[in-house]
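quick one, 205 residues, struct below
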Amino acid sequence: MFELIKSGGWLLWPIIACSVIAMGIICERLWALRANRILPRELVPQVWRLYKEKQLDRANIRALRASSPLGSVLTAGLINHKHGREVMKESIEEAGRQVVHDLERFLNTLGTIASITPLLGLLGTVVGMIKVFTAITLGGMGDPSALAGGISEALITTAAGLSVAIPSLMFHRYFEGKVEGLVLKMEEESLKLIEIMHGERAEEP
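---
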């Protein structure tokens, strides 16, 4: 394995570094974007029950805010529910923007890795071919090892760059879609709470 890395030249090292970073981001986002962590079941009915029983004191509101991203969004609305539907909705939207920012954490980095690793591989290909033509210019075709070394470096860096870029791009698109779905569901749950609290929607059994 080390010999393969050595054959790929110095440009293989930044590709390897990108692969380690991408793997870390993928594992972290798979853990962080679990639906049951972002959108706990029965949270809205639980909040409505606490509200009806007049148990939404500071301690319960703090616990709700810390419980989940959805809880954080709903808390922003609950704090301002006495100011009317529009103020409550605006507060939820402001909190939602912060939550979306947190959900999209590291996705730009993952997208950047998906974009630059093929370019690093291509650069490695160019460097390897330059070595091949330099060897031909200096020694003709009589040194197969010099030619093979340059071609090997070109192929290894290209393959490595694509091997990192393809899964990085796949997971980047997957996480973007998942965040979008979670945000839509969060908006739906928040709107449900607003309508229930302002008498525009019947409480669900």
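The chain has a mean pLDDT of 83.
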